[in-house]
Input
Amino acid sequence: MRNISIFQTVNTLILLCVVVATLYPFLYMIAVSLSGNLYVLRGEVWLWPKGFNLAMYELVLNDPRISTAYLNTIIYTVVGTAVALTVTSIGAYSLSKREMVGNQFFTLLIVFTMFFSGGMIPTFLVVRSLGFMDTLWAMVVPGAVSTWNLIIMRTFFRGIPAELEESGRIDGLNDFGIFLRIVLPLSKAVLATIGLFYAVGIWNNFYQALLYLRDSDRFPLQVVLRNIVLAGQINNSNVTSIGGDNLIIEESLKFATIMVSTLPILLVYPFLQKYFVKGVMIGSVKG
Amino acid sequence: MHPSKPLRPSFLYRVKKSKVLLLMFLPCLLYYLIFKYAPMFGVAISFQDYNLFKGIWESKWVGFKYYQLFFENPDFFILIRNTFLLGFYNLVFGFPAPIILALLLNEVTRNVFKRFVQTVSYLPHFISTVVVAGMVTMFLSPSSGIVNQLMKWIGLEPINFLMNPSYFRTIYVASDIWQHVGWETIIYLAALTSIDPQLYEAAKMDGANRWQQTLSITLPGMAPTIIILLILNVGRVLEVGFEKVFLLYNPATYETADVIGTYVYRTGIISGNYSYATAIDLFMGIISLVLIYGANLVSRKISETSLW
Amino acid sequence: MRRIGSSLLVVLLMITMLAACTGGGGSSGNAGNNTPPAGNGNNPTATQPGGAAGPAAGSVYRFEQPKQFTMLTESHASWPYDPEWLIWDLIEEQTNATIDVEVPAGTLEETLSLTIAGGNLPDIMLMMSYAAANRYGSEGALANILDYMDLMPNFQRWAEEYPSEFQMALSADGKMYIFPNEGFGETNRMVWLYRDDIFAKHQLQVPANYDELYDVLKKLKALYPDSYPLSFRGGLQRLDNMGANFGTNNRMYYDFAAGAWLYGPIQPEFKKLIEYMHKFYEEGLIPPDFLTMDTKAWQDVMSTDRGFITIDYIGRIDFFNIPLRETNPEFNLAHMAPPSGLPGVPQQNPYTHFLQSGMTVASTSNQLEDVMRFMDFFYTEEGRNIASWGKEGVTYTIVDGKKQMNKDFVDISDLRKKTGLATNGTYTWIDYDAHLSLASEELKAAYEEARKYDSQMQPMPAFTDAELEINTMVGDNITKQMEQSITNFIIGELPLDQWDAYVQRIEGLGLQQLIDTHTAAYQRVLDAQN
Output
């Protein structure tokens, strides 16, 4: 069909604008991270690197803290996502069934926590008393369920036609069996989405590291990154140097670190896109 | 095929029937009890003169002192108004944006282009607030920023955006949309996949064009997701984060930009007055709860979907 | 994740006094720079009988058994904590104590509050301000240093030599929770800077007062229409520096002549400053976005000939000159004497060259006495030498009887990154000449010049918890109103004839309460001195 409608043209234009607006800052950061000190200092870098050099990336990649942090982050993300996805999906499924006893009560219980929390210090004290400090579990368990994600999953599960589940019951499956054999295969899109949300959330999370990690060998990337990014923000003493170019580098060092820490997680979604396939339920409703 | 029961089933019967479901819910329940409810004793901090070292059990009680201090602040209404307006504009403009973008993407025929746009559009979500604020400041600079350069080129006078209080809300909301719209389309795209394509086939045979199909099939198909997210977002209207405002505001824009979060930061966090910060948080939590209760009520009345 | 977020940098003062000089035949280089005291540096005295004389001042207490102390300090992004740093070795060499450093995951302030709430405190903790230390101290988390003075003869002697620094570290109830510092404050010196080469090129005169400043700025603007001749970062904070030119300040300050605490921004002298600022703004002599100009934007402006006069840290001289001369050999950013704002007001800068961070000791430490003895080390000559200079032959050499830092350190950042010297948590008492020796000749000269324009240091009394609360709550309201009004005066949103109404607004927000807290707090300081 070579017929290109006006709508398609306009749509494409709009989407191209979106692309430019969202892509440019990244290109800018990449350019600065690859540029020479002097050009950055003089604000001459807009789109292409000037004085191209890989010094900042060498600095970042050779930093021993980064390689440890990278490994940590990957472990936390993989384990954390698996745990979170499991707990959230079975919880969401059970919540999606109105016939479960106490459904309304539990929902209220959960929603209530969105608005009231004990605060940073009490949460810290509770987790500490569980003996999780400085362990993998400290990074995985306290973030295992996000109310937001839980509710979204529940909404999706509610949208699955009841007939499909009925057919499972007829086949003799209990609730868990229905969940495993029928519901999950139909929920690839939402599992991929929520899985992605959790994964990105854990990858970008530094709050939990702040609260529960004391051993610097266990720090994730975000801790290192935040330290570097914040350092350039301080408008006070002890950040100056008498001469030399350490502070000039801050911008390009900042961006190089951001690039290095963000790239992997950015690339996850394109791999998940194949799960976003329409019509997963064709042919599933029979009789 | 159950015969209809004349009496409401007994509680124990219902528990037995939902045994498996309850078990499936158990890990979640434990999580909330341990990590959300156990720490709630922290609410007590707002009624105390909290001594960090001695802890809650040893701190002095002061009753409603900090709540009162907050209410008596001369800027009390201004802060709440600013917080509410920022959140509200974010809701009004920021909520539909990803839905529209998802619909536009849905119309794209070339898969490669679609995936490309999707991937690129969520990139800004990964840029930290600090960097975003820095970029916004840079792009809007009256002397060297791109926006003003363009304006000069057209012949307009440069505008000092960040020092003009009437622009603050626009800048804040626009940069929020720019940063998050791509990411937020993901959930809507997922929702779109659960719509049965046969419905579209049937509609096309009835002669409906794309626009009519969108109205009668796509939007209703996405409705539960949209409604739930809307209710959740209404509940979060007052949660205007402090970090971005803090990085973008300055004395020239305080009157529209200073929000609860930044006020708590200046008076509660920096000086270590956790009691004050907790009291304010609690107060805002109550208001948010009222808001979400209202939204849920409305939703129950006019649609089949609601949070509870 | 609600509302966390202080991004205070932690300046960890590590008191590392390295006693490099004395004895130890094994140390490289000759002991030529210091004469060893009668006893050598390795006093193997065990426990000190309480109340007895203790080791003689000037000698280093070296632990018989190796000791290990835990410390919470900041790790700065530009010179991240490295357990292999030379400084740790030097400290261990002298005191036989090693430090087990804990690096915070977030900012120091966040981690500190968690650590203190958790109850498992490390022996030594860095704190970013005397106020923070006093707050935690009054909560009971920190040990009162004064209780252990017997164990710290060197600190006692130091206190006699630097009484005002010692006084500053006292808390509102006369205790001391944080170790005072001296010497490194110089790095915070802020001065006026100007492009000497541009001035020479156009035969402009360095202004001595604000009227001359205005003339020079006008001329510069005419010559370079796209520039904003007076460019600075930090927005209204620079009114602190400029306020001094008018004999006032941009916050609560103590007027020594009047013997009273005043609020600077409502003084008539301050109004004069704002009148000038308004004129500068209207005529494009300061950037229109002066409130949002951040460090990067300001660096851009200063290095592309769009700004010619500025106010910033004195170290900026080398910071700009060295790299920019590579492409423009004539670039010369130089020290400028601060112009005087009013007849009768001397040319002066505010006293900003002090450091507010310091080391504290946990009250729950089970090695309290040993920690105190360890800290005493940093107040010895040896300690100061090691903290500032390092080790002879390794980091510095003696040239013509004067110490000279090795030139393979490009600058202070480099020194810190490679050796850990002058990083948070490794010093209290610094010999600033060590850092100056890495500076260019011009910068050294600038320091000399700048000292001529020092004004008297403002007292910084310690407040009680109740006073602090008032300062925070009332202070925030007043500061916010002040900032808004002053900004509007400068940009012309508020005409200057509304000044009196503004003063009344400020006073109506409870200013008298602030004056009262400051007066009471300072009175306690004065009483203690008598």
Summary: Chain B has one domain: 50-302.
